[in-house]
Amino acid sequence: MKAATERKLIRWIHIIASIPIIGYIYGPVSQIPEAAFMVKAGIVPLVILSGFWLWKGHWFKKLTGFQDKNTASPGRRKPGPSTLKFKA
Predict the structure, then answer these.
(1) Closest-CA residue to 52 (of 13, 23, 19)
(2) Sign of the CA dihedral 47, 53, 56, 60?
(3) What percent of the chain has pLDDT over 90?
């Protein structure tokens, strides 16, 4: 998956998952115990994780060494055997 596609997908997940939180704050969702539990235990952590990924996802990928072949930076050499050529 390209970096731009991944970012769009996570951004939409973040936006759509934030809607129940708005309902919890301004609507009657906080009065319904099952819905309130879903928002607190499921939706809020999802929004926090997706926001963190949008903010620091590149740092996490660099830290873990994960790099997608589509997002490899063009200036870096790929690891492998060296290709030294000697002139005679």
Answers:
(1) 13
(2) positive
(3) 58
Residue that the structure tokens 């309130």 belong to: 36
Q: Which two tokens stand for residue 80?
A: 């492998």
Highest mean pLDDT among 42-46, 62-66, 82-86: 42-46
Burial tier of 62 (Cβ tally within 10 Å: 0-12, 13-18, 19+): exposed
pTM for the whole structure: 0.68
Task: Count CB neighbours of 14 within 10 A.
Answer: 17
HEC assignment per residue over the chain? CCHHHHHHHHHHHHHHHHHHHHHHHHCHHHHCHHHHHHHHHHHHHHHHHHHHHHHHHHHHHHHHCCCCCCCCCCCCCCCCCCCCCCCC
